[in-house]
Amino acid sequence: MMESKITNTSAPENIVNYILSGGLLEDNKETCDKLVSQLLPIRSEYCEVVILGSEYCVRSYCRRFEALRVPRTLGGVILLVSNFHSAHVRVATWIANGGDNGF
To answer: Which of 37, 35, 38, 80 is nearest to 55 (CA)?
Structure first.
């Protein structure tokens, strides 16, 4: 049987099963941070997901290009997960075009 608290799950599959089985999540920063850290790569080949105050930001490693900003809520986590690939592509395209020194 699944634990009643999200903090007791250790893998994304457990979180998904917990939610699908009708489990409720609190809309707080700790829950959101745990979901983001388990559902998305914090650092990928071209970009990183960082916490900036009350927002999540997908940006380039050099911090000069931001592809996506969403609030640090469960709704923001949903937006971040659903738009992460396109944000990753935007950062990669920005890098491929030379960044700030591009065309």
So the answer is: 80
